[in-house]
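Contributing new records

If you add data, match the layout below exactly. Sequence lines come first and carry their own label; structure lines follow with theirs. Keep one chain per record. Anything else will be rejected by the validation script.
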Amino acid sequence: MRMAEEQTSDFETVYKKARRQVLRTEKKLQGAGIFHGWPLGQKNLDYPKNYEFMNRFAKDNAKGAPAAKEDSDDKIINSWELSRPWKGKYGNVHIVRNGDGKISKVFEPTLDPANTRLVMMARTSNARMESTMREAEEKGMKTLRKMISFFQWHCYYVDGSFLEDAKSGVTYHIRKGRPTLAYRKDRFLCALCLHPLAYYEGTWAGAMTPSDEAIAHLLMVRGDEKFFWRKANQIPLEDPRSGV
């Protein structure tokens, strides 16, 4: 009985600690509109030696928000990434409140869009290889096959994407392992990024397999578009996170 109580106590301690970390992360990302879902951190998987350059891109080039000093009362209350350069530099803007309640703005330079895309591609591949089971993805593909037409399945199987026309008149380009693109007639609207369960930070990889996430997007397009748009992060085309 005592052992069971100790195990329960240890579990509660770990759970409360993890929950506090999640709440801090939510406050930090509140209003940033980057991804939807539970942040899982980053996956680091070493590529073979002949792909060493991928390790460098996956591990060394991506930057996050500046960490506050332990003895500082400064708090990041909002953050967002600039889609256009400011004074010739791309980067993130952080709104910081210090211990006296004064609000200030901090600019954090980052990589240019082309290199940002390359970093995200490398890190996404990195996360997928370590976290996604082939059997689970195969099962997801079989399920998706039953939900779409033969032509849509042909497109998905060959190209990794397919088009779905919604009742609203919006056409959705549902892509494997990338945000869904939304069009109305000949006009691009935005990329819709939504990970139903969780995601790996700085990547397009979610906790679910790519085909399972494609199924989730498809069901929301068919069942409740407003919910999809409300929950998904709407990313402009020029933003590297759009996956274009």
